[in-house]
Amino acid sequence: PISFPASSQSAPAVVPMDVGDEDGDDFSALVFSKTGAFRHGNIGAGITAIQTMGENEGFTVDATEDATDFNDDNLANYDVVIWLSTTGDVLNDDQQAAFERYIQDGGGYAGIHAASDTEYEWPWYADLVGAYFRSHPPGTANAELVIEDHVHPSTAHLGDRWEHHDEWYDFRSNPRNDVHVLMSVDETTYQGGAMG
Q1: Fewest CB within a 10 Å sphere: which of 19, 39, 158, 159?
Q2: pLDDT tens, 142-157?
Q3: Which of 162, 71, 87 minimizes the C-alpha distance to 120?
């Protein structure tokens, strides 16, 4: 089993996760960080952090910004594709179709940070990511999160509220009716939130 920190910010526990399948094959992740719009300066640090986690916990991490890697043969090599701060239009129609097949065949997806600021003209991706980015207040701020699911492994160790420092996103639509919410930010604890 592998333990992932529940957050990069002083979370008091880790979440166990098995890395390997029934056949004993190693867990493998592809980090995809192509940008077609704003480029976050911390992408390199994010890739390094995920690679370090892989080294420490015994799973393989490859990183790419090459959209041609989104084909059936290549994607079949990975248990999860991590979209790390991707922005804008990053895949063509054939690459999108290959990624759809990958997910429909049981492949994993994790979207980090600006993954919701990506592929606005691809309705299937909108359903996968849950909601598209609209805006965020300037900078970062401390805020309180309300823990809504106390059973899920990523939140079970937290109390009813958790203070965290981050960049707080507003989305074009509220995904609450279409997703399982683990925690939500209390917009009264920071300035500039516009989700309501």
Answers
A1: 159
A2: 999 999 999 999 999 9
A3: 87
Nearest to 81 by CA among 31, 152, 120: 31
Q: Which residues of 11-48 are buried (b: 16+ CB within 10 A; e: fewer)?
A: beeebeeebeeeeeeebebbbbbbbeeeebeebeebbe
Going by DSSP bridges, is the β-strand pair 141-147/80-84 parallel, antiparallel, or unpaired?
unpaired
pLDDT of residue 22: 52
What are the tens digits of pLDDT across the range 96-149? 999 999 999 999 999 999 999 999 999 999 999 999 999 999 999 999 999 999
Cα separations in angstroms, 30 against 36, 75, 107, 110, 124 = 19, 8, 11, 10, 20
Give the number of other CB atoms < 10 A from CB of residue 91.
Answer: 21
Burial category of 171 from C-beta neighbours within 10 Å (exposed 0-12, middle 13-18, buried 19 and up):
middle
Q: From 138, 139, 64, 69, select the one nearest 102 (Cα to Cα).
A: 69
Mean pLDDT of the chain: 89
- The predicted model scores a pTM of 0.84
Tell me if 144 sits within 8 A of 185, measured CB to CB: yes
Residue 49 CB burial class (10 angstroms; 0-12, 13-18, ≥19)? middle
- For residues 46 and 59, give the distance between their C-alpha atoms in angstroms, rounded to a whole number: 16
Q: What is the Cα–Cα distance from 89 to 163, expressed in whole angstroms?
A: 34
